[in-house]
From TrEMBL:
This is Vacuolar protein sorting-associated protein 26. It comes from Paramecium sonneborni. Belongs to the VPS26 family. The lineage of its organism: Eukaryota, Sar, Alveolata, Ciliophora, Intramacronucleata. PANTHER family: VACUOLAR PROTEIN SORTING 26 RELATED (PTHR12233). Signal peptide: none annotated. Pfam families: Vps26. One of its GO terms (biological process) is intracellular protein transport. One of its GO terms (cellular component) is retromer complex. Keywords: Protein transport, Transport.
């Protein structure tokens, strides 16, 4: 028994409880219809499956990022003149044939402003055609390679900003795309900073007739696994200090001018002193950065964002009043 029903341009033909959905051509071109159309076709026909295998992935170094939205990421690392290559496999997924408008792979570097996607943009893009328009009748594999691709910026995953490198493989069909994304990391050693001479950082904190101290950090530039060393000298102490601590703050800034936004995150706090010091006392500073989630400092990346690191020395008295002094330092990646 045959029944025909028509619902908003969709003709449903029922043959003995077997449903065949036929999409009829409509002039209405709204986005909602296209999404609904693609969803119906994917549901009835199924989608091909795209898989990607990177060459040498088992032996390549990996690094870890923590992303507020994506969680912990473990990504393969590419540096210097490294190529990225591998194999793309398109699987039929039980379909007898797949009509398509082409298969392509892109290597993309993108800065994403998490809270304002309008400010997000690509800073690099490379593309290769894997398959021209046609019809697939069986699973197919494609080799790809991007030789010595430009590594302009280091990968970064922060609270408000994300700098990603990824491969995007997609098959274009008449009603949409089937795609796969594979993230990887770019790390950039900075030997030029390592070779620069170091200068100590000296600052004073004073309250008239109550407190006078100075503190010194022996260096202004630190690699990711370095040790912050220095000292605090107490020349006058007439307030009852309860404790002193040193904090490392990461400051993300994005946007320009009046639209600039800042996000501060305290990465670690380390107690330098417990109790009130005496006049003339010297307190040593020693803070290991190897256990802190830090990245290299970056300034005005493609006019989009900066990442700064601040050492924040804090004194707290018995009335819980806080006295602090902040000093920016440079973090770099050692070769």
């Amino acid at each position: 028994m045959k029944q025909n029903k028509k619902i908003s341009g969709i003709k449903i033909v029922v043959y003995n409880c077997n449903i065949i959905i036929q999409l009829i051509e409509l002039r209405w071109q709204s986005d909602k219809f296209h999404v609904f159309q693609a969803s119906l076709l994917n549901m009835v026909q199924g989608q091909p499956i795209i898989e990607v295998t990177l060459d040498g992935i088992e032996t390549r170094k990996h690094t870890r990022f923590v992303d507020k939205q994506l969680g912990a990421l473990r990504l393969p690392v590419y540096i210097g003149d490294d190529d990225i290559s591998g194999v793309v496999e398109v699987k039929m997924n039980k379909q007898k044939k797949i009509e398509h408008l082409g298969v392509r792979i892109e290597l993309i570097g993108r800065i994403e402003i998490i809270n304002d996607q309008k400010q997000s943009s690509d800073f690099m893009s490379m593309s290769r055609e894997l398959e021209p328009q046609g019809i697939l009748f069986e699973d197919k594999t494609y080799k790809f390679q991007f030789q010595k691709f430009e590594k302009q910026n280091e990968s970064y995953y922060g609270n408000t900003v994300r700098l990603r490198y990824y491969l995007k493989i997609y098959m274009t069909r008449s009603y949409g795309k089937v795609q796969k994304e594979v993230d990887f990391a770019v790390l950039i050693p900075q030997p030029e900073i390592e070779e620069q001479p170091q200068t100590p950082l000296k600052l004073e904190v004073g309250i008239e007739e109550c407190l006078h101290i100075d503190f010194e950090y022996f260096k202004s530039k630190y690699h990711l696994r370095d040790v912050v060393t220095g000292k605090v000298n107490f020349y006058l102490v007439k307030i009852k200090i309860k404790y002193m601590e040193l904090a490392v703050i990461r400051k993300e800034q994005y946007g320009q001018g009046q639209q600039q936004q800042t996000d501060n995150e305290t990465l670690v706090k380390y107690e330098l002193m417990d109790g009130c010091p005496q006049k003339g006392e010297v307190i040593p500073i020693r803070l290991y950065l190897s256990g802190v989630d830090i990245t290299p400092s970056v300034k005005n990346v493609n006019g989009k964002f900066s990442v700064k690191y601040i050492l924040n020395l804090i004194l707290v008295d018995e009335d819980d009043r806080r006295y602090f002094k902040q000093q920016e330092i440079t973090i770099y990646r050692k070769k």
